[in-house]
Every structure is written in C-alpha cells, then in structure tokens.
Automatic annotation (TrEMBL):
It comes from Physeter macrocephalus. One of its GO terms (molecular function) is protein homodimerization activity. Its main location: cytoplasm. InterPro entries: Flavodoxin_fold, Flavoprotein-like_sf, NAD(P)H_dehydrogenase_qn. It is found in: Cytoplasm. PANTHER family: NAD P H OXIDOREDUCTASE-RELATED (PTHR10204), RIBOSYLDIHYDRONICOTINAMIDE DEHYDROGENASE [QUINONE] (PTHR10204:SF33). The keyword Cell inner membrane does not apply. Belongs to the NAD(P)H dehydrogenase (quinone) family. This is Ribosyldihydronicotinamide dehydrogenase [quinone]. It catalyses: 1-(beta-D-ribofuranosyl)-1,4-dihydronicotinamide + a quinone + H(+) = beta-nicotinamide D-riboside + a quinol. Homodimer. Gene3D superfamilies: 3.40.50.360. GO terms for cellular component: cytosol; nucleoplasm.
Length: 231
C-alpha cells in the first residue's frame, strides 16, 4: 500500500536460502505496492545479540550493581544507548509493519534475532510500566512472523508429536510483540521446505507473495490465551 513503511528483520546466514527467497519476494511485492521497505539483515550486519553493559555509552545510573533492564531504561531516556540499538529503534519507530523472517530454532527464534528483541525492545521504547499489552508503546503498528520449520505440518497439530504450532507462537507473538503493543497478524508458516520438491518450494514462495498483495486488508488475530490454547 503506497506510503506504508515496512521493516523486515531477517535472520538467515545464506542469501540463497529459502528464507532468503521469502525475504526477497516480500521486498519485491511490498515495493511494487509503493511501500518503503527496510531490511535489517542481522547476520550480514554481524548484529550483537548479547545484552551487556557495553550497550550503555554513558555513565551507569547504578555502577555498584549492574541491572541491564534498569540501565537500558535509563540510557534510553538519556539517549545514551549504543548506536546499533538506536538505529534499529529508529527503523521500528518509523515502520507501520514489522515483519520477522527466520527459521524456527528449538521452537523459537535464532539467537541473533532473540538478541535483537532483547536489546532493541527496551523499556521506555517498546513498553513501560504501566504501558504494555494493549497499552504497549508500539501500539498502532502491525507485526507478523514469517517462519520456516524443519518438521512437517502434520507434526504441528494438537495431536501431532510437536503439539499445535500456536503453542510455540505464544512467547513470541503474545509475550513479546503484543506485550509491546503491536497488533499481530496471523503467522505465515512454511513447513519443512527442506523436504519439499523444487516445485513445492516455488509454490510456497508464491503463496507468501500472494498473501502480501492483500496484507493491509487483514485483521489482526485476537492475541489472547484462547487463540493459542483453546477455550
């Protein structure tokens, strides 16, 4: 949709990977619509995933006992967070939609993407107390997870060996994105691309491109426990 700004936070080491193809087709389709698309390619950026005192450039507010959450909050208010965090926060602040493209690692995000969440979505920027869930500081923005799995779709149902895929989305969509105020669109899950034929993989990429054509018309999911765990 013309005039909209999209940030794609992308976590895969190989540009020619299936995740790379999904990212590329999103950039192409959203750009075609007239959106401004920014990509944070975390591995290419050599993004630092560790939350340490190096993230605070000025004096610590409590040097005798280091608390990352306290110091990051104070540093955000004083504009003394390190430049890589400030750069990512600016991208998030400007975005109407933040899209996360990644392979599922252990029912979660790769460490480099977890580190992005830990460092970028700090108190004062993404949430405050009070100021979380529906009152999160990023309210008014949309978020979507586009992820790939190693396991096949039949493994990720309630009766499957891995349980319902919605179970592993709970900490990411609800505990992180909704906590920060995002309205969360239904996830896009590409199941087991490694075990698919070339033709099937092309179809999976095409279905993502097709969905993106109408992404701005989608309603967010009701991001509350029943969506994940049933009544």
């Amino acid at each position: 949709m013309a005039g909209k700004k999209v940030l794609i936070v992308y976590a895969h080491q190989e540009p020619r990977s299936f995740n790379g193809s999904l990212k590329d087709v999103a950039v192409a389709e959203l750009s075609r619509q007239g959106c401004t698309v920014t990509v944070s390619d975390l591995y290419a950026m050599d993004f630092e995933p560790r939350a340490t005192r190096k993230d605070i450039t000025g004096a610590l507010s409590s040097p005798e006992f280091f608390s990352y959450s306290v110091e990051a909050y104070e540093a955000f208010k004083k504009r003394s967070l390190t430049s890589d965090i400030i750069a990512e926060q600016k991208k998030v602040q400007e975005a109407d939609l933040v899209m996360f493209q990644f392979p599922l690692y252990w029912f979660s995000v790769p460490a480099i993407l977890k580190g992005w969440m830990d460092r970028v979505l700090c108190q004062g920027f993404a949430f405050d107390i009070p100021g979380f869930y529906d009152d999160g500081l990023l309210k008014g923005k949309l978020a979507i997870l586009s992820l790939t799995t190693g396991g096949t779709a039949d493994m990720y149902w309630k009766t499957g060996v891995s349980g319902d895929f919605r179970y592993f989305l709970w900490p990411l969509q609800h505990g992180t994105l909704h906590f920060c105020g995002f309205k969360v669109l239904a996830p896009h899950i590409s199941f087991a691309p490694e075990f698919a034929s070339e033709e099937e993989r092309r179809g999976m990429v095409a279905s993502w491109a097709q969905r993106l054509k109408t992404i701005w018309k989608e309603e967010p999911i009701p991001c509350s426990p029943p969506w994940y765990f049933g009544q």
